[in-house]
Amino acid sequence: MTLTTAAPELASTTEPSPPKKAPRRKKPRLTVGRFFAWAALVAVMLITLIPFYWMLRTSFSTSTSLGSDPGSPFPVDFTLGAYERVLGLATPAEALAEGGSGASINFWAYLRNSLIVATVTTIGQVLFCSMAAYAFARLQWKGRDLVFSSFIAALMVPPIFTTIPNFVTIRELGLLNTYAGIILPTLLMTPFAVFFLRQFFLGISREVEEAAIIDGAGPIRRFFQVILPLGSAPIATLAILTYITSWNEYFWPQLVGREEDVRVLTVALGVFRSQTPQGGPDWAGLMAATLIAALPILILFLFMGRRVINSIGYSGTK
């Protein structure tokens, strides 16, 4: 009798206990302060997006019809003609009929030039700034701190002060209207980028680098095989910020790269703006070109949005 009654008791004790439910998060209460905070956030978001929407609305209108209904929130005489003009798909007659100049636009050449300038500048600046930051952070050499202090002092010099000396140097070297002339002043390094990476490299554990030294690694091997992999996050941050800055640069490319062969998109948009085919700018074409010019940055933000936001917060840049 004892055995027949003990078996069911054993079976009941071995049954798995039901999983515990995760504690439910309480929904935040909608207080008056929270309501006004959300209202302010939505208002700021709308104010930020309205210029973008207006640009989109204008790009889908015809320049000749915009004056007839300038306050309409919707495209006036909806058309894709502005994009066709910018991409070189419209005939001169079609362009003139919609308020364009009828002149050919080398949009793809301008896009190629912007891609070349931004990509080469980013690669060069990230590489050389990383090497300089490593030398300032991890290598011991005489006068290191003095040189670094002098280098960082350049942060206090407004960029406009160095524009004329840079222009004279580029002109004397015969590099006006060349890719090299546009890229060289920012190719090597900037004080901010060196300072930014040096602060991170200082925080890398010295034991990791000392282990590499025991294995016989020299400074170059330690830099490429130890420091760079550990510093991939801030280096990616710097690359994103550098690419966006280089893509949006206008003044320096306008100064040294006016020829058609090396003209970048930002400068081309300025030239496009100055054209007045029928007594005024081709606003629809200009807005379409601006939207297309912003596409690479929008795509970059679409795929790396979280890292871009982290970059802004990490670097303190606005």
UniProtKB/TrEMBL annotation:
The keyword Manganese does not apply. It comes from the Bacteria. It comes from Conyzicola lurida. One of its GO terms (cellular component) is plasma membrane. The lineage of its organism: Bacteria, Bacillati, Actinomycetota, Actinomycetes, Micrococcales. Belongs to the binding-protein-dependent transport system permease family. Gene3D superfamilies: MetI-like (1.10.3720.10). The chain crosses the membrane at residues 35-56, 115-137, 146-164, 176-197, 223-244, 283-303. Residues 1-26 are annotated as: Disordered. This is Multiple sugar transport system permease protein.
